[in-house]
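Methods — Computational structure assignment.
A single polypeptide chain was analysed. Its primary sequence is given first, followed by the predicted tertiary structure written as structure tokens.
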Amino acid sequence: MDLQALVLPYKTATMASELKPSAACKQLSLKVAVLEHLKSSGFLQIETERPTLSLSFDLSTMVVPVIDFSKLDGAERAETMAQIANGCEEWGFFQLVNHGIPLELLERVKKVCSECYRLRDSGFKSSEPVRTLDVLVEAEQRGEAVAPVDDMDWEDIFYIHDGNQWPSNPPEFKETMREYRAELRKLAERVMEAMDENLGLDKGSIKSAFSGEGRHEPFFGTKVSHYPPCPRPDLITGLRAHTDAGGVILLFQDDQVGGLEVLKDGQWTDVQPLAGAIVVNTGDQIEVLSGGRYRSAWHRVLPMRDGNRRSIASFYNPANEATISPAVAAGAGGEGAYPKYVFGDYMDVYAKQKFQAKEPRFEAVKAPKSSPAA
């Protein structure tokens, strides 16, 4: 969704007639928060000499929950905590605004990552997905029947973490991404603390589980992706449907080009672009720790004919050595629905079954009943 689609004329009378007073107040409060968020980001210019403010947001079109994270420390803390719980329980996805990451930093991140892709563009044009699609199109032109590709993605990616080599061009990339990752790590830990509280756990419980009770460093990695324009989106997927293996995922997605969808109640739903927002989703390990109360959600990226989608996803995951098991009573899945296992073992299974159902992955790492308790 672009800014023009997000910023709509605000009519007090219409709002009052269509919403109950309490709902109207809540929606107006969030609209103001998002408005301030975009104003401070530079995406929205307001002419202060005008006698009235004539801009607002139609948040009814933002289906995936949007949460003003700054209210976690104010008078509306309880309501904000409830919104986070709802996002985790009902969606597995939500968007944070006023999250504390400087919006000027986000602009720099966009710039260096887009420049990185520009330098990599020629490589993608000769990549296997492009060659495969060319072969399919040529076969189709000869009158042959072709089937969509189901074993690769229309995606250019690279990963950065503390232990690997980062791109040296553009020159600002390393400094910018180090600063960004430090801010994002802090945000992830604040989100996990909110989850702790909502689950009735001691503060820091999820972080402690991810670190093997402090013996290891949780893994924090970042995947920088671009989804270039695709001439035949009917023949290949941007990113195939999957759930994420790890813990808490924080995504800084493109604010102009959509394509990310989450599966909710059997229907694919857009995670609509919102300038300056951070999208949060819960991975498989949060589902296990919560005993199924929080669910890792299936999601995918659709390829687009027009527009180059930028996507920067960071993963706050357990250390490979960490032991993961339910920290709260089992949810709807029943007692024993989730096993106790070492995260590294789970990742070995996930690497082979990423795009398959998650339940067999849990079963695959379940210790035999005859094994002694760890």
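Note: The chain is about 35% helix and 20% strand.
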